[in-house]
Design brief:
- This protein is of the alpha/beta class and 161 residues long.
- The chain has a single domain, classed as Rossmann fold.
- Helices cover 44% and strands 19% of the residues.
- The protein contains seven helices and five strands, in the order E-H-E-H-E-H-E-H-E-H-H-H.
- The chain has helices spanning 15-27, 47-57, 74-81, 93-109, 129-135, 141-145, 151-160; strands at 3-8, 30-37, 64-70, 85-89, 114-118.
- Strands 3-2-1-4-5 form a five-stranded parallel sheet, with helices on both faces.
């Protein structure tokens, strides 16, 4: 069985994340979508909210499992759950440079786990959670944000802001 892990903060989950999840779900028998917890990072949504939103927005995929992990390198988490692949979304050149370096570090730690890069279509390539959070506030933000996030995430933004 081909098992992969796709990890991010998912604060919030975006259409870009869902594109990567859909593509990876087609490539692998099982995909673990994992929220990486960074204790030094301030999050808009709690871990429980992010887990709930991920479960809701990925429920159509029979082979996707939602989880979280903390205080370990992603490659070690992948090994611990029996995943032979790490999936990473590449939006920009700077993403590529960062992920390329991480791929080499991961390989130093465990060369049996393969990193797969997926590049989204142009129309969603610039979407990031940070970018979306930066759009919230000015008059009309709802019309803009709604375009880039799944409906349950949009509803959570409206509830918060």
């Amino acid at each position: 069985m081909k098992k992969a892990v796709y990890a991010a903060s998912f604060d919030p989950v975006t259409h870009g994340h869902l594109w990567v999840i859909q593509e990876a779900a087609e490539l692998f028998d099982q995909l673990v979508v994992a929220i990486g917890i960074n204790p030094d990072k301030d999050y808009t949504f709690s871990l429980e909210e992010r887990l709930g939103l991920l479960c809701e927005t990925t429920s159509r995929f029979d082979n996707v499992v939602v989880a979280s992990y903390e205080n370990q390198f992603l490659v070690n988490y992948a090994r611990g759950i029996g995943a032979g692949y790490i999936v990473r979304g590449i939006r920009t050149q700077s993403d590529y440079e960062f992920e390329r370096r991480m791929r080499y570090i991961n390989s130093d730690l465990d060369d049996t786990i393969t990193t797969i890069f997926l590049m989204p279509p142009r129309e969603i390539a610039e979407i990031s959670s940070s970018f979306i959070k930066g759009l919230v506030g000015p008059d009309g933000w709802q019309d803009v944000v709604r375009r880039y996030v799944p409906e349950p995430v949009f509803e959570k933004f409206v509830e918060y802001f």
